[in-house]
Specification:
This protein has 393 residues and is mainly alpha-helical. The protein has one domain: Rossmann fold (3-Layer(aba) Sandwich). The protein has 17 helices and five strands. Strands 2-3-1-4-5 form a five-stranded parallel beta sheet.
Length: 393
């Protein structure tokens, strides 16, 4: 059984840590959660869940299961590191990392390049059950894979718009942010349901331990795989100094889009995700989303700019408009920039993904006013970004 029905969401989240840990251990058969440093963040997540969102009944269970999956991910990681000590010696060389302004095409590019078999990436189900990547033909029989399928089906069943605007599939590559939530100090928790209390706390925290644990998870997942890593996370733009400490030869694709398109798009996308947990209650907090998202993403770009300027040869700029107009042309330019070989098989697989267009089948509508935003606000906050990168509307 993928999910044990006895582990229902409690009436009060804060203070339920013992119950939560018991559930995670019962469902995995494991009991080593690693260092206790994650517990303070977990307590803040749970307290915020009581105070901030307006959960529906199914949304409440979804939120509980998200926390439970994260603790289970810690258990799987600890077990994997113990059982496969060779992970420590695994070097991650010349990873291709896609980052940049949020909603700039990072997911679409990641999925397209991920069709190339020369790469390995983070399959979504392995972000919630980190382990050396099993043989593909065994995945469907793994309880962790079935749990991931079930969770996504429930999430997108109540908010199909979330699936349309941010395509997540259990067996396909997902972003690094999913691995960075294991310490409960991550932007991941600040964008799942309305969590103003957690978000305020998160802004005061050091995410370095979360990033370091993420890298160790990468080494575990790929410890028997020699392929080159293909990674993606818009938030990585704010952690570039840590990237180059771990991966000094990283090849970074920085995506760009005009902020008058990107900022309302991320606000709308997050509201769709909130809808899955809060239903109509998400409309109440929608006007609070925009200003926060506007500042958050440009702050990440600005934080990473000094590091980018010290490593100019490691970057390539790609624009949302260009990727949308001719994705194969853009991908060929990326391959040329970083001396990547495109095999005939890879070209066929990427072309098939472009033709299928799973990331662009539903048109995404949004309005600045819905999120408490104005053009003047966005243009003022992103003035430096617009001057430097010249993104087109």
């Amino acid at each position: 059984m993928a999910w044990d029905p006895q582990w229902k969401a409690p009436e009060r989240f804060y203070g339920s840590e013992d119950y939560l840990h018991s559930a995670a251990s019962a469902m995995t058969g494991l009991d080593d959660f690693g260092d206790d440093g994650y517990r303070s963040g977990l307590a803040v997540v749970l307290a915020s869940m009581d105070a901030d969102p307006r959960f529906t009944l199914p949304g409440r269970q979804l939120a509980w299961d998200a926390v439970l999956l994260t603790l289970m991910a810690r258990l799987y990681a600890q077990q994997g590191w113990r059982d496969h000590p060779g992970w420590r010696d695994r070097r991650i060389e010349k990873p291709v990392i896609i980052t940049g302004l949020v909603r700039s095409g990072t997911t679409a590019l990641h999925k397209l390049m991920g069709a190339d078999p020369q790469f390995q990436g983070l399959e979504h189900w392995l972000t919630v059950a980190p382990m050396p990547r099993p043989a593909r033909e065994t995945w469907e029989s793994h309880p962790a894979y079935r749990r991931a399928l079930d969770y996504l089906a429930r999430l997108f069943g109540v908010s199909p718009e979330a699936a349309a605007t941010h395509n997540i599939v259990a067996h396909e590559y997902d972003e690094c942010l999913e691995l960075q939530r294991q310490n409960f100090v991550s932007n991941r928790w600040a964008c799942t349901w309305y969590s103003a209390g957690y978000d305020a706390w998160w802004q005061t925290q050091d995410e370095r331990p979360s990033f370091d644990r993420y890298v160790d998870n990468l080494k575990l997942i790929g410890c028997y795989d020699e392929r080159r890593w293909l990674l993606k996370n818009p938030g990585t733009a704010g952690h570039l100094d840590w990237v180059f400490e771990h991966f000094p030869d990283a090849c970074i694709v920085q995506m760009h889009r005009h902020p008058l398109r990107a900022v309302p798009s991320i606000s709308s996308t997050i509201q769709f995700i909130h809808n899955a947990f809060e239903g109509d209650g998400a409309r109440v907090t929608a006007p609070l989303l925009g200003v926060r998202e506007m500042h958050k993403w440009i702050a990440m770009i600005e934080a990473g700019t000094p590091t980018r300027d010290r490593h100019p040869d490691s970057f390539m700029d790609v624009y949302h408009r260009d990727l949308h107009a001719d994705p194969m042309k853009v991908i060929r330019q990326i391959y040329d920039r970083f001396d990547l070989d495109m095999s005939a098989e890879a070209e066929q697989l990427i072309a098939a993904r472009i033709a299928a267009n799973p990331e662009g089948q539903v048109e995404h509508h949004y309005d600045l006013a819905d999120f408490g935003l104005s053009e003047r606000q966005i243009l003022a906050r992103y003035h430096g970004y617009i001057e430097r990168y010249q993104p087109q509307l």
